[in-house]
């Protein structure tokens, strides 16, 4: 069950029953606190990436007052709730997400985290113990991930926050589709865009803060 902003400038439509449940969830104190906690980590450990995401998100929201901001204390456009009751994600990459933006994953429920529910980062060859109430931030658009099973008498739920790359492209294209943008841009603008595309991976990588930039030392 999820709610998120969607291109070109609309919110995903949920069924009446799901919409009521989602409204209760996003207005509940526990999920507001989880969202706020993640935001605090985001600001502290990736301030440049946070500022970029915040600026783009504010521009998106300002372009159309019908767009929904899910959590007042978050700069991420999307959220998903999975009620399991034994949530397992097979290995996958979220190709629709902005590649260098972090996706926030909360593991919730009641299970023996020594025996199951581990976070698996396949490309990094890491299997990480992931107790209930734990949050992880990963660039899910490029990092293959999933989680291990839990036992039948246990429960595991998940809550994630993220933003799609389409939202950022919509803003960068002047709030128009890729096709419309290409049809109206000048030749010089097309050259500049090709350079930006070529260097975008480096731009994203440079938004990750180093320990020295954060005032920390190894």
From TrEMBL:
<protein>
    <recommendedName>
        <fullName>Prolyl 4-hydroxylase alpha subunit Fe(2+) 2OG dioxygenase domain-containing protein</fullName>
    </recommendedName>
</protein>
